[in-house]
Amino acid sequence: MTAQPTLTIDRLIGELKTLAAISEDEPPVVTRVVFSEADLRARTYVKKLCTDAGLSVTEDAIGNTFARWHGSEPDLPPIATGSHIDAIPNAGLYDGCVGVLGGLEAIRVLQQLGFRPRRSIELVIFTSEEPTRFGIGCLGSRMMANVLTPTQARALRDKEGRSLDELRSSGGFTGPLESVVLPKGRFHQFVELHIEQGPLLEQEKIDVGLVTHIAAPASMRVVIEGEGGHAGGKMMPGRKDALAAAAELILAVESAAKSTGAMDTVGTVGVCDVFPGAVNSIPSRVRLETDIRDIDGARRDRVLASLQQKCDEVARLRCVTITTELVNADPPAACDPAILETLEDSARAAGKTCKKMVSRAYHDSLFMARIAPVAMLFIPCRGGVSHRPDEYASPEWIGSGVHVLARTLTALSS
Length: 414
Ligand code: GLV
Ligand code: MN
Ligand code: MN
Hints:
Radius of gyration: 22 Å
Structural class: alpha+beta
Helix content: 25-40%
Largest sheet: 9 strands, mixed
Number of helices: 12
Distance between the termini: 8 Å
Bound molecules: glyoxylic acid, manganese (II) ion
Shape: globular
């Protein structure tokens, strides 16, 4: 590659901050749940930036967005980059957005340098990488890869009972869900820039991480039905307190994840809905959403199996009814060695230090890997903090990531 990218980092940081201000919560808290008013406004903002950069923007039936810089051989499958702009409740401003706006910045820098790609370069903004609304992560890329089929997608409901069809059409996204599915070969290669969401790069003072594998995520929904009643009037013997049963299961998730002895096994219960939720009423129903992950899929499945066993045991001993639903249990993904080599060459050419690492978080790359060769590029984030308002990546870190990405896109698209 001959182009020497020079970055306009202030422009990018300004855009990240503008995007962060489009939130359902007061700054610095970013909350942008898919198809919320904030999500729709954020999409409008990002699409305008893309059209301002001369990219051709199209959207599919669920709002996955494709912004294309046409190459000199436009019939060749494009090189794609991108990430997501939806944000979980109480999030920060870098998760996903660095990959979207950083990808756009990489394209703009290459345009300014007069680079002309042979293959088109396409920025992809995936719908609902976060599982907040529908309980399942990577909705957009999962559907592109047909891992979640149109029939399964039609059955999705949010907490208020609204369907994907209802919500997407209120956002202006119509057309058959079948058209979201993409064939292998639609993209030549895909590279995703993302913050690490872990502490290693910062601790080791390394500029960029080259992701070789993405861990296998799973989610199990657990509903416990007990017996409600008056918190004063009903004696302790014979109670069927659904929340007390849930407490045992929450601790079981923690100890099952710890019991593997591997740092790569993690287990979390992030949702606990208690009904009726009154201080003087015995909980009659509780819904837990559990998140269990491991880089080793079989070991992750053993943790899931032990949770199921614990559910059966608690149901028996506490005389409550426990139903479980496996929402997803995806295999891990491996990144493509050839793209990793290009990333490494690009990092060296840019004078950046790098190391190979795994991603314990999931990303749209997990599903893009089903339809194209993929790789991921990580930048540090302060203290490894993510999914919190104090998530932070310095302009220098972001600049390094965009620089390496720009060089990589140059090499891949030439
Ligand atoms: C993505 O946000 C994840 O939870 O890994
Ligand atoms: Mn996230
Ligand atoms: Mn993310």
